[in-house]
Amino acid sequence: MVMLALIVIGFAFLLPFYWMIISSLRPLSEWYARPIPLFLNNPSPSNYVQLFQRADFARGALNTVILCFFTVTTQVFFCSLAGYTFAKLRFKGREGLFIFILGTMMIPSGVGMIPNFIIMSRLHWIDTYLPLIIPGIANAFGIFWMRQYCQSIPEELLDAARIDGCDEFGIFWRIVIPIIQPALASLAIFTFLGTWNDFTGPLVFLRSPDKFTIQLWLSVVSRQANLFQPHLVMAGSVLSSIPIIILFASLQRYFMAGLTAGSLK
Questions:
Q1: N or C: which end of the chain has fewer CB within 10 A?
Q2: Along the 265 residues of the chain, how does pLDDT read in single tens digits?
Q3: What's the rounded Cα separation, in Å, for the pair 11 and 229?
Q4: Which residues of 208-226 are buried (b: 16+ CB within 10 A; e: fewer)?
Q5: Which residues lie below 8 Å from residue 208, measured CB to CB, with a gap of 6+?
Q6: Contact 84/176 with Cβ under 8 angstroms?
Q7: For residues 260 and 61, what is the distance between their CA atoms, to the nearest angstrom?
Q8: For residues 136 and 76, is the Cβ–Cβ distance under 8 A?
Q9: HEC-encoded secondary structure of 91-157
Q10: How far apart are CA 148 and CA 183, in angstroms?
């Protein structure tokens, strides 16, 4: 009975994705057919061909890849560095500062949107990718995530490196980084998913169409020239889901190891 319930729930979760795929293979003329077909008799890749012929879609995908690259690399590096600092280094006010950082997780993101926009405007960062990268370089979740994992590193290993003359950054780079790879991969996946699927941030800070990300492009394309283009939106949605699936499949081993590290500690 439990297995049957899980299968039904699994199909319920997969149904929207399945509908998105078959909808991306339907021409616009069939979008108004009723009832909505669950199977396709003559699937056509014309929507994808039309999508690939649009230079703005390729530019939006490239913009998102570039944004994800810089966001993931900076957040993974600085959050892991801060997490190691809070986990293994002793300094005055460490616990109070860490509690303050955790407290920021309780503040809804929408509360700081207007002040953040004012700050970015005064810095002349509007219509650039800097407001989407810099404020989240060392975020509370990433620091907390890496701190919890770094706490499992034996102190004896770090002390041995100090005795050999290695400085703190050398210990972090040569010893800690190889050990915490599962946590780094997990944080990279979380950061990539958040950046790739982010719509509010690009909508607020980006102005030029040539800088739009793929999610913002999907929102705009359906209203371009006052035309209803759901077939292109669905095809673009399918393509935008592929990098997420590939990333998760390639890093799944590290991702699961990072999630279960706390239970195995």
A1: N
A2: 788 888 889 888 888 888 888 888 887 777 776 676 777 777 778 888 888 887 788 899 999 999 999 999 999 999 999 999 999 998 899 999 999 999 988 888 788 888 999 999 999 999 999 999 999 898 999 999 999 989 989 999 999 999 988 898 999 999 999 999 888 988 998 999 999 999 999 999 999 989 999 988 888 776 654 456 777 888 888 888 888 888 878 877 766 665 555 444 4
A3: 28
A4: eeebbbbbbbbeebeeeee
A5: 127
A6: yes
A7: 33
A8: no
A9: CCCHHHHHHHHHHHHHCCHHHHHHHHHHHHHHCCCCCCCHHHHHHHCCCHHHHHHHHHHHCCCCHHH
A10: 9
CA distance 74 to 71: 5
Q: Which residues of 94-105 are buried (b: 16+ CB within 10 A; e: fewer)?
A: eeeebeebeeee
Which residue shows structure tokens 């999907």? 218
Q: What is the pTM of this model?
A: 0.84
Number of H helices, E strands in the chain: 15, 0
Q: Which residue matches tokens 């405007």?
A: 121
* Rounded CA separation 40/25 (Å): 8
Q: Count of residues for the chain?
A: 265
Mapped onto helix, strand or coil, the DSSP state of residue 33 is: coil
Residue whose pair of structure tokens reads 């990300």 in the numeric block: 213
Q: Using CA atoms in the order 157, 160, 165, 169, what is the torsion angle rounded to 10 degrees?
A: 10
User: What single letter denotes the amino acid at residue 112?
Assistant: G
Rounded-to-integer distance, Cα 95 and Cα 212, Å: 40
DSSP 208-237: -GGG--HHHHHHHHTTGGG---HHHHHHHH
